[in-house]
Design goal:
Radius of gyration: 35 Å
CATH topology of one domain: lipopolysaccharide transport protein A fold
Helix content: under 10%
Strand content: over 45%
Number of helices: 3
Distance between the termini: 54 Å
Shape: elongated
Structural class: mainly beta
C-alpha cells in the first residue's frame, strides 16, 4: 500500500497504460491524502480532491476510485466540469471510461435556465432528472419555474418531461401532463397581464397565456374582466413547424363578450350589438426555395371591438384585411394565386374569389428590346353596405409592352415604351352580357444622371468627402379613350382616395374598372447627398425629391397641373433624422398637405421624436414622444398629442417600464384623453409581459 499524491499518480499512470484498450487516457489525481491498493485496483483521495481526465475535471471532498472499471464515487461538493458545462451535486458517481454519471441533489445551468433535481443519471449529451425544477434566470419570487416528476434534458437541444407544473417561484398552478421543447424555444410562448382602469371600461384585469401542447404548437387564450362591460374570453395560440424542410409559422387570438356597458354606435352609425367578439389569424409558410404562402383572417363582429378593448392594436390596423396568397417565384416570372374575403359587415371590400396572376419580369428579346407581360383572371365581388346591389365580375386581363433603352451618352438614358391592355368582362352591366376593352399606350421615360464630388470634411458630423447625385426624370404617357365602355363595366376596382401621385403606366394601374384617358407628362427631380461610410460604401446625408404632373389633356375635375410634391429626408448623423412630405397647389401654392418628423437619438440613453400631420381642412395634429433610459431596470416615457384644429390636447400619456429580473417587462402608465368619443377621458394601466421562458 502506498500513500502520497505523487505515488498515487504514478500508479494510476502505470495502470492506465496497462489497460490502454479500455481507457487510453490516464487520470491525474491531486488530493491532501491519497491511498491506492495495487492488488485490488482500488484507491481513495480526500481533502481538496480533484481528478483530471481528458477534458473532464472532477472535484469533491472525497473520491473512491475503481481502476478496473473506471468508476469514481464522490462525496461532498461533487463537481463535474467539461468545457463550459458544469454539474454540481452533493454526491454521486462518474465513469471515466463511458462518461455515465449518477448524481444526488443536482444543480446545473444553461443560460438562461437554472436546473435543480433530487437525482440525475445519464451523460453530458443526455440526462434524466428526477423531481426537477427548471427556473428561468435566477431563482426568485417572480421567476418562472417548471417542476416535473421526470425530465429528460439534452443540453443545447431539447427538454422533455411529464407531470409538469408551471408557476412563479414556489407557487405552481398550471399542469402540463407532457411537454417537449427545443432549448432554444420558450416553454411558455406568451404570458401577459394587464391591470388598470379606463373611463369607458371601468377597472379591469386581462390575462393571456400560451403553453406547449405539441412540439411547435402552443395553445391557450385570453380572459379579461371589465367592471363596466363584463367578461371577455377567447382561445389563442401560436405554431411553428418545420415538416420536410418547410417553415410554417402562425398565430391566432380571439375574444368574445356579452357587453352590458354603453356601447354606442359603429362606424356606419348603427347600434353596436351586445354580443361582441373578434377572431384574428395570421399564417406564413415556405415550401422549398420558390413557393410561399401568406394568409390573414380578421373577423370583427363590429367595427369598434378592438378600439374599445385593445386600442393599441386598433391604432396600427383600423381596417382589417382577410386574404390568402401563394406566390411561386420562377427564374424570371411569378405566379400568384390570391384570395381576398369580406368577413365583416362594416367595410366595403373588393373580394377576389380568387385571382390568378402571371407576371413576366422585363426580359431581353434581342436588338436591345425588352418585353414585359402579365395576365390575370379574377372572380370579383363587392357587397353594398346599405341597400345597393351586389357587384360581381368575372374578368380576364392581360398586358404586354415593349421598351428599348437608348443611351446616347453615359449620363442620359431614353426609353421609348409601347404597350397594350386587353380586358374581358364575362359579367357586364347595362345592356351587355359581356364586354371586351382594348387599350394602348405609348410613352417614353428619360433620366439624366449628373454627379459632383467635393473635398469637404467635418469631424463633428462624420463627413469624409461629399458626393451629390442629381437625376432629373421625365415620363410621358398617352392612353387614349381609357374610359371607353365604362357603362358596361362593373366598377369594382376603382380609384381610391390617395394624396400621393398615382401610377401613370398602363400596366401598373390598379383601378382597372374606372380608368380614364391619360395624356400626361410627369416631371421629377431626385437629389442625393452622400459621404463615405466609416465601414464600407457610402452614407446618405440628404434625400430631396420633387415631382409634379402636367396633364396635357384633362378629365372632369382634373387640373392642368397636379399638386407639387416634395419629399425630404436629412440624416447628417446617426443621432439625428429629419423627415418632410409636402404637397402644394401648383396654381396658388396653397399648402394642401404637410407631414414632418424630427428624431433625436442617444442610442444608449434616450430618444425624442416630434412629428406633425396636416391635411387641408381635415387634419392638423402634433405628436411628441420621449423615451428615457434611467438605469438597467427602469425606463420612462411620455406621449403627447395636440389637435391644432380643435385647439386641445387630445392625449397626455406618461409611464415607466421596468425590467424585472430580466424575465418580465412591466409597464406603468397613466393617460388623459380629450375629444375621444369612445376611449374615455382617463386611463390607468399596469401591463406585465413575460420576456421569455
Amino acid at each position: 500500500m502506498l500513500r502520497g499524491s505523487s505515488a498515487f499518480l504514478l500508479l494510476l499512470l502505470v495502470a492506465g497504460r496497462a489497460t490502454a484498450q479500455v481507457a487510453p487516457l490516464a487520470p491525474v489525481v491531486h488530493a491532501d491524502y491519497t491511498n491506492f491498493d495495487l492488488s485490488t485496483g482500488l484507491g481513495e483521495a480526500r481533502g481538496h480532491a480533484q481528478i483530471q481526465y481528458g477534458s473532464a475535471l472532477l472535484l469533491a471532498d472525497e473520491f473512491h476510485v475503481d481502476q478496473n472499471t473506471g468508476l469514481v464515487t464522490a462525496a461532498g461538493h461533487f463537481t463535474i466540469t467539461s468545457g463550459t458545462d458544469r454539474l454540481l451535486a452533493e454526491r454521486g458517481s462518474y465513469n471515466l471510461t463511458t462518461g455515465v454519471f449518477s448524481l444526488s441533489n443536482l444543480r446545473a445551468g444553461e443560460p438562461p435556465f437554472y436546473v435543480t433535481a433530487a437525482a440525475a443519471a445519464g451523460t453530458r449529451a443526455k440526462m434524466t432528472l428526477t423531481d426537477a425544477i427548471v427556473t428561468y434566470s435566477e431563482p426568485g419570487t417572480f421567476a418562472p419555474t417548471l417542476k416535473a416528476d421526470r425530465l429528460v434534458y439534452e443540453p443545447g437541444k431539447r427538454i422533455t418531461g411529464e407531470n409538469g407544473r408551471l408557476g412563479l417561484g414556489d407557487f405552481r398552478l398550471l399542469k402540463l401532463p407532457k411537454f417537449d421543447r427545443p432549448v432554444a424555444e420558450p416553454i411558455i410562448s406568451l404570458l401577459t397581464a394587464r391591470v388598470g382602469y379606463r373611463h369607458n371600461l371601468g377597472a379591469y384585469v386581462d390575462l393571456g397565456l400560451h403553453v406547449p401542447v405539441w412540439p411547435g404548437i402552443n395553445l391557450g387564450g385570453d380572459v379579461a374582466e371589465y367592471t363596466a362591460r363584463g367578461l371577455m374570453a377567447g382561445p389563442g395560440g401560436t405554431y411553428r413547424l418545420t415538416p420536410d424542410g418547410e417553415d410554417v409559422t402562425g398565430s391566432f387570438r380571439s375574444g368574445f363578450i356579452e357587453d352590458h356597458g354603453d356601447r354606442g354606435v359603429d362606424l356606419l352609425g348603427r347600434p353596436v350589438p351586445q354580443a361582441r367578439g373578434f377572431f384574428e389569424w395570421s399564417h406564413q409558410q415556405t415550401i422549398g426555395d420558390r413557393l410561399t404562402i401568406t394568409g390573414e383572417y380578421n373577423w370583427w363582429k363590429d367595427s369598434e371591438i378592438l378600439r374599445d378593448f385593445h386600442p393599441n392594436e386598433f391604432r396600427a390596423v383600423q381596417q382589417p384585411d382577410s386574404f390568402v396568397e401563394s406566390v411561386y417565384a420562377g427564374d424570371n416570372y411569378y405566379v400568384d394565386l390570391f384570395t381576398r374575403l369580406a368577413p365583416n359587415n362594416f367595410e366595403e371590400v373588393q373580394e377576389r374569389l380568387p385571382e390568378l396572376r402571371f407576371d413576366l419580369l422585363p426580359t431581353p428579346i434581342g436588338a436591345g428590346f425588352y418585353e414585359r407581360f402579365n395576365s390575370s383572371f379574377s372572380a370579383l365581388q363587392e357587397d353594398s353596405l346599405f341597400s345597393g346591389p351586389t357587384l360581381r365580375s368575372d374578368r380576364f386581363d392581360t398586358f404586354y409592352s415593349v421598351e428599348r433603352p437608348i443611351k446616347p451618352a453615359d449620363w442620359l438614358t431614353i426609353t421609348p415604351v409601347a404597350g397594350g391592355r386587353l380586358t374581358y368582362y364575362a359579367k357586364a352591366v347595362g345592356d351587355r352580357s359581356n364586354y371586351t376593352r382594348w387599350l394602348g399606350e405609348v410613352g417614353v421615360d428619360a433620366a439624366l444622371r449628373a454627379s459632383g464630388v467635393f473635398d469637404y470634411h467635418s469631424q463633428l458630423w462624420g463627413i469624409d468627402g461629399l458626393r451629390h447625385l442629381l437625376t432629373p426624370r421625365l415620363s410621358y404617357r398617352y392612353i387614349p379613350e381609357a374610359e371607353r365602355g365604362q357603362a358596361y363595366i362593373p366598377p369594382i376596382d376603382r380609384q381610391v382616395f390617395s394624396t400621393y401621385l398615382q401610377p401613370i403606366e398602363l400596366g401598373n394601374m390598379r383601378n382597372i374598372d374606372s380608368l380614364h384617358g391619360t395624356h400626361v407628362l410627369r416631371l421629377s427631380l431626385d437629389n442625393v447627398l452622400q459621404t463615405r461610410a466609416t465601414d464600407y460604401g457610402s452614407r446618405d446625408l440628404i434625400n430631396f425629391n420633387l415631382a409634379s404632373d402636367l396633364n396635357i389633356s384633362t378629365s372632369p375635375g382634373q387640373r392642368r397641373w397636379s399638386d407639387f410634391y416634395t419629399e425630404l429626408t436629412v440624416t447628417p448623423a446617426t443621432w439625428l433624422r429629419l423627415e418632410l412630405f409636402q404637397r402644394l397647389s401648383s396654381r396658388t401654392f396653397n399648402l394642401h398637405e404637410l407631414n414632418t418628423g424630427l428624431e433625436l437619438v442617444d442610442h444608449e440613453w434616450w430618444t425624442l421624436r416630434f412629428s406633425s400631420t396636416y391635411l387641408q381642412q381635415q387634419i392638423e395634429q402634433y405628436f411628441l414622444e420621449f423615451d428615457r433610459r434611467l438605469n438597467e431596470v427602469w425606463r420612462g416615457y411620455a406621449r403627447v398629442r395636440y389637435d391644432g384644429r380643435a385647439q386641445r390636447w387630445d392625449e397626455l400619456s406618461f409611464g415607466l417600464r421596468q425590467n424585472l429580473q430580466n424575465t418580465w417587462n412591466v409597464r406603468y402608465e397613466v393617460s388623459w384623453y380629450h375629444g375621444q368619443q369612445r376611449e374615455g377621458s382617463f386611463g390607468l394601466n399596469l401591463m406585465v409581459d413575460l420576456i421569455r421562458f
